[in-house]
Structure formats: structure tokens, C-alpha cells
Design a protein that fits this description.
Mean pLDDT: 97
Structural class: alpha+beta
Distance between the termini: 34 Å
Radius of gyration: 21 Å
Largest sheet: 8 strands, antiparallel
Number of strands: 19
Shape: globular
Length: about 450
Amino acid sequence: MHGEFLIDGMPEYETSRHIWNAAIDRHPAVIIRCADSEDIARAVRFVKRHNALLSVRAGGHNHVGFAVCDGGVTIDLTRLAGVEVDASAKAAKAGGGTTFGVYDSATHESGLASTGPIISMVGLGGYTLGGGIGWLHRKLGLGCDNLVSAEIVTADGEIVTASAQSNPDLFWAIRGGGGNFGIVSSFKYRLAPVKDVLAGLIFYPLEDLPKVAAHVREFNAGAPDDVCVWMTMRKAPASPALPTEMHGRPVATVAVCWAGDLETGEKVVKPLRQFGQPLIDLVKVRPYPDWQKALDPAWGNGFRNQWVGHYLPELTDAAAQTMLEHVSMVSSPFTDVKLATMGGAVARVGENDTACGFRDSKYALVIQTRWKDPAESAQHLAWTQGFFDAMKPHGAGKVYVNFVADEGENRVADAYNAGAMARLRKIKAKYDPGNLFRMNQNIRPG
């Protein structure tokens, strides 16, 4: 091995087994911290030889805890975190353990970016393989739409390239099919000019949510691709950016990111900023990586986490009213609810061009529940489930796979159309017939 082989009792073992979701407390028999793709290949062959349970840690931010396993082998990719930017070709290559904070800092030096999440510490791996929504998806497409190629270690321990030209079936599958088909040691993305953005949060009292949602719906109907609007609902955090009298107050926020010409953006975003009587408007011009880190404090370590989601065909008045009713009774002050506007470049990719489908969905909802005390888990999970159930009549019956909790294979199937699922199972049977890669939102071999 070029990397490390960790077992219980080593200080590095404890660091590696702990992940973002504090509810996950698992003890792998062995953690293999890989330094390159050859290490990953050796590790995979080792796992197969011992018929062990396998988990793969990249960013470690999936709330279900797929990154670590009990009694098996965890392959840790966090040493694979380098980024190489080719500004002239508008492309970047990054290791499979890279986080977006590192990636965006590197690409920003050349005034370039690709679609990333709304939190900087999320890893490239789970995010891209699940599809990838964020601040730039309406302008540049999903994270997986920006993917040019990937180096993958298969279940046989072979190192292969997946692209439009090489193993195109595998390339199709990893753009939305999750970590079911192998371990990605490196990603190559196309980049586009994005440097400074007009972005920030506009805060309203939570009781204004129905009329704010109606205004956002009207704005989105004619919005250009350069703008992406998210809505969030929560109790205002104790942030130094907010007046102390707002701390703990239930709020609805409009989070806006304009990634085009800034003078034009001021005009386009103006109707959002002039609507109603906001408590505070924090929209300003800032470097894109700064905006991508702005919500990081709401995702700190040490909390227990659960999230569930729905695709919404429209943001109806009834849906907004349901959200208001449930967020008004939120069980934890650390919980937030996010509603992402879809469309734009996302919807212009063919429904079957990648495994990530339902591209005509207008909104993606995620209920992210966070709490500190394990003794309170039952009440917070009950609130989450009640809210999720109440939103079912407003949903499309489908879901973005990275918003699926530990809900079983039927819910995983809701993340794919029937044709895509059949194709994914066939490709799974080709590349991983023994379902070695099953610590994920699993797609069983056909």
C-alpha cells in the first residue's frame, strides 16, 4: 500500500471512522486510507478475497452513513484530494476524495466553475454520482452533466475510464446511479466562466411564506438560466450576519444566486429584493466560493441528522400552506427545510441521456432535521415523517436520489424512471454482479 492500513487503537482510525452525522457510530474492522487508484484496486481485491462488507468514504456527508460500516472494510479516499485545472481547456481533474471547498478554490483562481452543492464541505463523489444540484445547475446543468470522464475501480479491482467514448454504458450509469458501479478515484469536469456572483439571503417572517412562495413562483416562470432561487424555512440561526433580535425567530428566506453579467443581474434580481417587507436583505456581489461557503455553519459536525425529500411538479399555494403549518411546529431549532428551483439547463438534457431523470420537475424539496440530544431522536423523527407524509399530495411521487433516507429499495426506485432502473440493473449485473458496492442507495443487479 502507498497509503495507510488502520485498525482500532490507532489515533487515525478514530478520525477516519467518525463522519458528519453524529448519529452514525460504526467500527470497521479495517480502514484502508488509499493514496492512489492502485491502492483502491488492491483494497477492492482484498475485500473480495475475504468476502467482507465494503463501504467507501469520500466526503462522508451522506446522512445515512454509507461511508462507514460495522465489522467490514472502509475504503477512505480523503487523501485523494488534489485538483488540477487546465484553464485553456476549461477543464479540471480532481481526486475522488476532494471536497467542493478545495475544488472551487482551485477553479476560482482561473475565474471558472462547474456546478457544485450549496455547502462547501460536501465531497465530489456522492454529490456527482447522485446527480448534483446547487447554485449553478440552472446555468450549467447538474453536477453530473458537467462530468467529462471518470477513472473508476470496478468490483474486479480493475482500473477503467468511463466517458462518452470509453465504457459509455458505465458513464451513463454513474451520472445519477450513485456509487453502485465502482469507486471513482478521479473526476474530470468541464468548466465555465463564473467568478463573482450576485447572491445572498432575503429574510421574511415565516408567516409571510405563502405570499413569498407565490412571488417566487411568478418570478421563476420567466427567470433566465443565470439565476437560481432556493427557499429555506427555519428558525433564524444565531449568526453574526443577523441582528440579535432575529436569532431564533421563525423565518422564510429567499436565497438567490445570479451567475451572469452583474449589471444585468441587478435588474433581474430587483423584483425579488423589492417584494414585501423583508426583515433583512443580505444580497451582494461576492466571489462564488464565498457564497458556496455561506451556509456552511448550518451544516456543522456534531449533530444528528435525518433528511427526506420530494420532487414537486409546481409550488402551489396549498404546498406553501402545508410547509408553513409544519415549519411553524418545527421540533428542533437547528432544522431547516430547503426548496430548490429546477429547470433551465437541467431540463434541456434529455430524460434518458443520463441515469438522473425527472428533469421536468420544477422544484426539489428536502426536509433536513438536525438535533443534538440523542434522547430527543423520536420526537424529531416523528416531526420529519409527519411533514414528509403531509407533502406527498403535493409531490410527484418521485425524489432526487441524494435526498433519499434509509427508506428501502422501493423509495430508491422512486428516484428513477422505469426504463432507467431496468438499464441500471443490467449495467450493475455487468460491472458488479455480486453487489459488492451495496453500502449506498442500492440498485441490485438485474
